[in-house]
User: What shape does this take?
Amino acid sequence: MSVRVAAVDLGASSGRVVVAEIGPDRLELTEVHRFPNIPVRVRDTLHWDVLGLYRGVLDGLRAAGPHLDAVGVDGWAVDHGLLDASGALLGNPVHYRDARTDGVPERVPVPYAVTGVQVLPINTVYQLVAAAGTPQLAAARQLLLIPDLMAYWLTGARVAEVTNASTTGLLDVAARRWAPGVMTGAGIDPALFPPLVEPGERLGALAPQVLAEAGLDGDVPLIAVGSHDTASAVVGVPADGERFAFVATGTWSLVGVELTAPVLTEASRAANFSNELGVDGTVRYLRNVMGLWLLQECLREWPDAELDDLLAAAAREPGLAAVVDAGDPAFLAPGNMPARITAASGATSRAGIVRCILDSLALAHRRTVREAVALSGRDVDVVHVVGGGARNALLCRLTADACGLPVIAGPVEAAALGNALVQARALGAVAGGLGELRALIRRTQPLTRYEPRGSATSGEAAAWDAADAHLHRDGP
Assistant: This one.
């Protein structure tokens, strides 16, 4: 048996619809539509163009059709739409890079022992606190995270998929259910939050008007997947066994290990690690690193630059000559990134700035992998780099050198693969747990291995140690 499914994958800079044809020994992906995801500033607020995204989804399903066995939607975390009593959307969702949450985390304590979530100003809990007293929030009767909002418009089902819900700071991560005590403690109405569902559940059929507009035949179910794109990407990690770390790269780098239970210790809280829920009862124990956002923003300021040329020039630059803390909130907002990198590092040329960014990301990957191992007790033998950064050979090589571990790069399409595989398993086209799904990826997808240069006692390792100590001389 084989199936043909559509994986809708919404990223922070673009969305796409990918068709997957899957059977016991078959896993083929075809991207049929890609569309931009460009934030829009209206007066003082940065918004998502969510109706434009929905149009892109419909256009993608039309390109994927006319026959599909199922559809699944994943996307970024924390952002949400608010619905009124009739189910209508109350305005365009606010972008997580909007400044409205500045200073909110410092005045709103969220119990880490319950939520297990890293303190970031973008978290849903802080967005809702920042919106307190607004007419929009007063009129809201339900909150849907972005992938759940798309699912609602496609099917009419109003639910919250658990992997994305776990990023909000409003979920009891150990129990995998909402935490109403945390909500009320932050002044948030628990009635806003819909029922939770797990990946693999059928949410309902695509609505008749959606089928007509997308030109699809028959009864097409929408299946809950790991709707946080990182949850789907980790399903798509081609690991053989448990002793691996992952770096899911894109606008952000999500760096961590996969566990069977959350780590809710004081040391974990102090290190600002997140326990985000994964597929099949797993926990993604990770920390957000700023990621390729730093490079993307530089490219936006350099419209005449070619990425391949910049990377080739950066590879010729001396390593670790200038580094920055890739987790510094100073780099969160858009605008004039090259000047900010120069001010923080002293790098001035384009090649030097790009090398600074990639060295700094590799350092952040190194530090985060080592802390995840120490805090969780999960030893690792290999680092898997998946997502867009797997194409960046220099970043992968530097990550191997920094971590002192082999890096396996690929698949680039990890999120779409994980999305599609959960659908295929729900339809009965493949069987087994994550190990079996990952074995299928290893058999069918191209992967590249990077060995670290130098031993643990070599000058290469000492240089990374010194650079890390320089960045963190005042402590973690």
